[in-house]
Amino acid sequence: MSVLWQQVNHHPVVGERDFKRFLRYPVARALEGPLEENAAWARAWFAGHARPWSAAIRAGDGVRASAAAWFRDYEDLAVVAVSAGLEPELEAAARWEADEPDRYFFLECYAAAAVEALLAEARRHLGADAHYCPGYPGWPIHENAVLLTAVRAAGALPGSLSMLPSGMLVPKKSQLAVCALRTTPVLAP
Q1: In Å, how far are 132, 171, 177 from 137, measured between CA atoms?
Q2: What structural domains and CATH numbers belong to the chain?
């Protein structure tokens, strides 16, 4: 297993459409008033305080066995780990405790959209045709342990990432995925 890519404190572009999707807000409707203020606050807070990161490794035999049902036709697989970092989770919790549920909600949604954007960037960077994650239909969430073990063994984690007994990741705005590679990845400078 070799490290293919790492990025630390890289802020992905989160489009308005994607942010609204996580907010469960109609895409065609403009955010106005307090909604617009909370969205702007979440974007600005994330840009100024979050330390998102991503990493990718070439998948070994353990990952291949775990992901075999989805990637039979691919020779080359990668494990991708992405996270919005712990900072948004801590700030969202502080906002909840301060009785600011709107700020909590908007920051949670923005961090989730950032994780999705990081995974999409990783797929483009790696030249991946597809990805699948533990927790998706048919792949139990506890299989995150296989992917996390592989990423840790390769020394690829540029940030904190652990797993609860349930299989959920900490920080919660994090994701592990297996990507099917169609080309040789372009390594970051």
Answers
A1: 9, 22, 13
A2: 3-181 (3.40.109.40)
For residue 82, list its beta bridge partners.
Answer: 54, 175
pLDDT, averaged per 10 consecutive residues of the chain (189 residues), comes to 88 97 97 98 98 96 92 91 98 98 98 98 92 95 96 93 96 97 58
Residue 173 has a CB neighbour count (10 Å cut-off) of 28
pTM (two decimals): 0.93
Closest CA to 80 of 115, 56, 58, 53: 56
Half-sphere exposure of residue 81, counting CA atoms within 13 Å on the CB side? 34
CB 77 within 8 A of CB 67: yes
- Asked if 119 and 82 touch (Cβ cutoff 8 Å), the reply is yes
